[in-house]
Amino acid sequence: MSTDTPAGSGDAFTPEEIAELQSRVDELERDLADLRAETADGPKKMVIVATKGTLDMAYPPLILASTAAAFGYDVTVFHTFWGLEILHEENSKDLKLSAVGNPNMPVPNAIAALPGMDRMTTRMMRNKIADNDVASIDELIEISLESGVDLQACQMTIDLLGYDEADFYDGVTTGVGAASAFQEMVEADIQLLV
Amino acid sequence: MSTEASETLDVKGQNCPMPVIKTKGAFEDLPAGETLEVVSTDSGSMSDIGGWAESTDGAELIAQEEATEGGEDVYKHYVRKAE
Predict the structure, then answer these.
(1) A66 at the B interface (CB within 8 A)?
(2) Cα-Cα-Cα-Cα dihedral of A78, A80, A85, A87, to 10°?
């Protein structure tokens, strides 16, 4: 037998209490339906922020983006700072790799810093890419766009680096900033900074 | 289940991520109830296409085979589209 029942409440609820509980249940059911609709709303999303423009660092965002699209994800890649080079139609075909500051390279920094060394390192990497049947950057851009990936170029860095909208591949989204990238990240299931 | 395929996708000589992306494209065009055969030379495709099929609605991985053809290793995948 309970001893903490409020005095006078008896065993049965009053009609007012029942009505109050019923309206509370209705309210919770509405909230639950809204939440379900929100979470079941469309495909999953991934947002990648691509900030690097060297030959090696151009690959991961494009490979992940096109792969996620094949898994049915809605994908946005927001390119900012040197990441813009990946979307720049001319520069993307000439991305470079430096051996300086990379201890995995078989060349000491003092030698890697000599004139012409970046060109040599880049050529070696390009040959390796071709020998191993790895897709080129412009192939990956094309396949990403075809798969519905939204490749975005940050407007602030377009202006900062003195680029023009026409410099970028057809299909690249321009005129977007941190706020729109952030909004997409809020809604995304996966957010990556590369 | 039979690995009789109605369509074959040849992605030999292509590396990650292409086999999965091309598989997805060919799978979209595949009629329901049919099986797609994917022939790849990328050893990573065993795990990649397996994972893709597992998380794709309506895709069922029937079999994966390794073989040697013309001196090179090939990886064959059979993906069926649900009716």
Answers:
(1) yes
(2) 20
